[in-house]
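User: Some background: our group keeps a shared notebook of sequences we're curious about, and every so often someone picks one and asks for a predicted structure to add to the entry. Today it's my turn. The entry only has the sequence so far, pasted here. Could you supply the structure so I can complete it?
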Amino acid sequence: MAKRLFIDLNKCDACEKCAVNCAYFYRPQMTDHGMLALRELAAFALICRRCEEPSCVAACKYEALERQPDGILKRYNLRCVSCKSCSHACPFGTIYPETLPFYAVKCDFCALMGAGEIPCTINCAKQAVEFREVEESPKEGIFLIGEHLAVRAPRWNKKDV
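Assistant: Of course. Here's the predicted structure to add to the notebook entry:
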């Protein structure tokens, strides 16, 4: 079992403002933007309702949001101007406006976890971020996203009627 960056979104959402420091190489003075990108990724993968004809995508006049074939949304940061139209258009409130910054930094998982301690795990006030071995457990609300991320969050599943 490999180690992953583990984020407990329930604990993370309890913070008023994220104070996590990110060690992103190109912008070391930035705080929490790497975390915002991870929260956005988790929300799109787990919480988004995956509408057949998403109003959030239609609302974006910059074509910065796209519904991928698997139904998961993708935001193109170089097109996004952070107008938050997608957030306002979402009928379920699953696109959080605070996770849509104008200047977005994509988490590089501290160069794939090669260097000792990971700054975001050290200074999270709620201990919502850890670097540890974790297995997917839908019963416990733990889901793997990609190769390096695990998230604890309530997952939305479409019920067939």
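Suggested note for the entry: Residues 16 and 142 are 23 Å apart (CA to CA). The first strand starts at residue 3 and ends at 8.
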